[in-house]
Design brief:
single chain; alpha/beta; 10 helices; 39% helix; 25% strand; globular
Length: 269
């Protein structure tokens, strides 16, 4: 069943991949790490909840693994489909709410979530659904790519500008750690075996000009907190700040990103 949405993900689908810092090459290396972690073979079935443009699982599809992706944004799924001449037989994409899983019990060997659990309202029900559709001895991998510190600093400067337009500066750096702890505790309580892995660390470099371009394109959720006219004025203010602070739009901002995995293996028979 298709879900009608009006989220900023629909609006940014065409620019999503190029405005993030997980490149195709890095995603391919992470996929190899995941394959080794779960001892996958070509019969192993993968499900990503909130699959979006498929950036995380596209390498798995190319390698021949069976992948199902579910996402509420039809535009994001369309971007995923455009990565193929024809949709391969080992890929199924479903436009639906990833918090309500339309699958039979014990359907998948591996379930992935990548920086999406924070958007789930009833997390306990969501975790119950993951446990329900995961096969015995299967893996639930809760993942996130950590924002490179230089890009996070840049974002925080923009948040300072938003404050002058009446937008509260909400930054909760502990939120993801709290959610990851909740996930770990929930699954350990139902006899899952938990483990934490840094799958990949890599250097991310962008010029100030590049990052300003991403913000002008409203590539991130905080860019949609203002109406268009206010946003345009806020960007003028921000661009002036960047010139004063970084001295040039050609200044390069470099720092290290991480891909983290909280692995939870189902041990009950």
């Amino acid at each position: 069943m298709k879900k009608k949405t009006n989220s900023y993900y629909d609006r940014i689908a065409s620019i999503y991949d190029r405005t993030r810092w997980l490149t195709n090459n890095i995603a391919d290396e992470v996929a190899d790490m995941i394959i080794n972690l779960v001892n996958a073979n070509l019969k192993t079935s993968f499900l990503e909840l909130g699959v979006g443009t498929g950036l995380n699982v596209f390498p798995l599809v190319k390698k021949g693994y069976f992948v199902t992706g579910i996402d509420v944004s039809e535009e994001m799924l369309n971007q995923f489909k455009q990565k193929f001449d024809t949709i391969p037989d080992n890929l199924a994409l479903i436009n639906d709410d990833a918090s309500q899983l339309p699958f039979e019990d014990h359907s998948f060997d591996v379930i992935l979530t990548v920086h999406m659990v924070h958007g789930i309202g009833d997390r306990t029900k969501f975790f119950q659904e993951i446990d329900r559709v995961l096969k015995p001895q299967g893996y639930y991998l809760n993942c996130q790519w950590i924002t490179p510190p230089a890009r996070m600093e840049f974002e925080n400067y923009f948040r300072d500008v938003l404050v002058s337009y009446g937008i509260e500066k909400k930054i909760n750096h502990d939120m993801m750690n709290t959610i990851n702890t909740q996930i770990k505790e929930y699954f350990e309580n139902i006899n899952y075996k938990s483990n934490y892995i840094v799958a990949k660390e890599w250097e991310v470099s962008n010029t100030v000009k590049e990052l300003l371009g991403y913000y002008r394109d409203r590539a991130y959720g905080l860019c949609w907190l203002l109406f268009e006219q206010q946003f345009n004025q806020a960007m003028i203010d921000f661009e002036q700040f960047c010139l004063n602070h970084y001295h040039s739009e050609d200044t390069e901002l470099s720092s290290t990103a991480k891909f983290e995995i909280w692995s939870n293996q189902k041990t009950q028979k």
